[in-house]
Amino acid sequence: MELAKSAYLTREEHAPAQPRLLAHPTGKTGLWGWLITVDHKRIGFLYGFFALFFFLVGGFEALLIRTQLMVPNNDLLTAQQYNTLFTMHGTTMIFLAVMPLSSAFFNFIMPLQIGARDVAFPRLNAFSLWTFVAGAIILNIGWFLPQATHGAPDGGWFGYAPLTSKTFIPKHSIDYWVMGLQLLGVASIAASLNFIVTIINMRAPGMTMMRLPVFTWMTLITSFLIILSFPAITIALVELMMDRNFGTGFFEVSLGGMPILWQHLFWVFGHPEVYILILPAMGIISEILPTFSRKPLFGYPIVVFSGAAIGFLGFAVWSHHMFTTGMGTVATAAFALATMAIAVPTGVKIFNWIGTLWGGHLQMRTPMMFALGFVWMFMIGGFSGVMHAAAPADAQQQDSYFVIAHFHYVLIGGSLFALLAGIHYWFPLMFGRKVSEFWGKLSFWVIFVGFNVTFFPMHFLGLNGMPRRTFTYDPNLGWNFPNLLATIGSYILGLGVLIYFIVMAYTYFRGQRVKRDIWDGRTLEWSLPNPPPEYNFRVIPTVHARDAWWYEKHHREEIARENAEHAREEDAHGGIHMPFGSIWPFVTSLGILIGAIGFSAFAPIPGPGIGPKLGISLVGGAVMLIGIYFWSLEGNEGYHLHLDKDGNVIEDDAKAHH
């Protein structure tokens, strides 16, 4: 608990006052306040804002794809435009929408659930946010540059080498893709290390590991998956960058390279990535179902251990994506068995959720409906996933629309339904406003119907032989009606998502205000006012049971005595210590962005203009080093808040100290 102890140090016990160059601004409003923020709640909000923006971008790209496929021989898009759209749709949805939306919940909710005032490294948290933004800019910058020499990435979201080499894609579009994913990996690893340290070291007294909320457990497991899986894709991307820009031959057969090496490296990352996307969703569902069933989660230890088992087995199944590459019968059999085995802990979770519902006093509120939709849609995706574990069946379905249907049922029917449930569930906590049940349920049903009308026909398209990544088709192949139906469904799905976003935007500005615990919640975040104050907890709570807030509500006198004693101790130590905001994480990420632009958009290929290419990279490197240098001098200094008995700030020594 060493990191947590810093919250009780007085100002004099911290590092000496900093020179004027490093003096910290105290403004918390306006653009400047957002740029310097290190508050985990604000960073979570920004993650969510950017994720939802890119979710809309990725959804628009999907609608263009479906419109192209609505009728045979459509010429709305060229083959090149179609390649760009499906590349950017997949990349955007995975890396710029679902992952950062999960990170938004990790940032905002997880510290509140464990009774912490912030994450362990607030400035590193800000750095991960702005580096994510830098990676998103690099990935999308090609849209705004000349298509003849640059353009958006168009080599497929999987980037199979050597099809992404200079020989086949001489433009800089793949350089953006490579560099953007590298920066997103840096952001993800920085955030994951932060979350792991926070969960292990900053839990409230009494919050043992087996009292952690399941969502916090899934945050921890997901963070370990990111740290262990991203090095594989990092190696692959560095090798691809070397092949494209420096003439190496990692994947070029003519130079002694092995194209299958890319597939192994990519899928060693790619299949754990599936669980990086789905485990947070499972954590959200494991919070919502007990709350609206009015009973504790059935089989809590089994749910936790099955999540850990899914994470562990996720590293042993990558080659089921490669059954058609000729690995041999032994390897194929081993990975087929491992793939079947991973269905066991997943099924265990589903039975535990059903056990939670069984005999409960169910409240069919909007978050509950999205959660139940997740369970059913994810089961359908799981059934077709087990089919792919059988190598003979997979050989028939490989690269067909059956696979498209499968992973959309897992990642939209699964991850997205759960994330929308989470937004609806925690919206009153985050913003202090209640979402209309009528409009929330309407958006659910439109999304539910649109999703199934879109993706269920794709099972039949795949079984009838329609290959994925096909930009048009002849009318005599028998694919006309399922494609038309899927496109109509995509418009319905888009309408449902639009209704959802309009309802949330209206609620944010005009929704009914709520003060606290609108759902009669179980976990500590619901013990706070809505929205939570800057400092989160007036006193760090002492946890006595797994469903900590339910326990506190039944033992109010005991908890009140403890809180009064802890408040006196905290006041005697100078109040609540809060970290200063800092501009230097933003400056560091800005330098990384400039350097990445110089290295990708103007890749260092020998020839005319090497000076400007190198110069932009050097400028970016210099800005990054300046940011790191001044960031390193900031130390652990902060300011103190002094509160009255109701939690209102009566004194803020930040200005006096500044």
Architecture overview:
There is one protein chain. By secondary structure, this protein is mostly helical. The chain has a single domain (39-579), classed as Cytochrome c oxidase-like, subunit I domain (Cytochrome C Oxidase, Chain A, Up-down Bundle). 64% of the residues lie in helices and 3% in strands. It has 20 helices and five strands. It has helices spanning 2-5, 30-36, 40-68, 79-113, 122-140, 173-201, 214-246, 259-293, 300-313, 329-357, 366-389, 391-397, 401-431, 437-463, 480-510, 548-554, 556-572, 584-600, 610-632, 654-657; strands at residues 433-434, 512-513, 576-579, 638-643, 649-652. Strands 3-4-5 form a three-stranded antiparallel β-sheet. A hairpin with a 5-residue loop joins strand 4 (638-643) and strand 5. Helix 3 packs antiparallel against helix 4. The two termini are 29 Å apart. Mean pLDDT is 88; it is low at 1-25 and 604-609.
